[in-house]
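At this stage, I put together a protein sequence along with its fold in token form, as given directly below:
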Amino acid sequence: MKTTISLFFFALVASTAFSQAKVSLKIIQNGAAVTPVNGEYDLKKAPFAVEFTFDVNAYDGVFVNADFTDAIYKVGDKTSLPDLQDIPYKILKEENFNTNKQIAINSDNWAFWLYNKANNEYRFDRDIKTVDANTVTATRTIEQVYFPVKEKTLKMSEVTEPLYLFFLVTNPYNQRGVVRELYRQRMKLNFK
């Protein structure tokens, strides 16, 4: 009985701690957050930014799938991702500090926008804002899309079709055995 009560108490404390961890994603254009309408973001054909606010003690970054097809996006909000355990091994190589101001487009692979202050390594823009002792806001400016297979870029002013984004936060790398999904958010961006 004591063991059951102890396990219940531990689970309650752990779930409370998890629910207090901070994660939010926003689309920013012209310095203002864009509000989705019916789950879709209407943007100008101009640069925009993705703003990721998170607890650095709970997360080490966010996996991002970006594509002009909705293959991953249509998985939905609740359906499990069929290749969840493989996602950490399907990472596209990207530059530190987002020097190219781009997002990689690939239906099969994922980007991993990480933040590691100790090693001065991150895939966001250089300016990381501290919210409090444990929370930061990292921004990724997008001026162009990049097609790694074709090694081709396209400026945002040239994009004519919707861009589907799927963000996935998992347990941190140093705590990974089995990959566990902790947070997901889908976004459809329309350019007008």
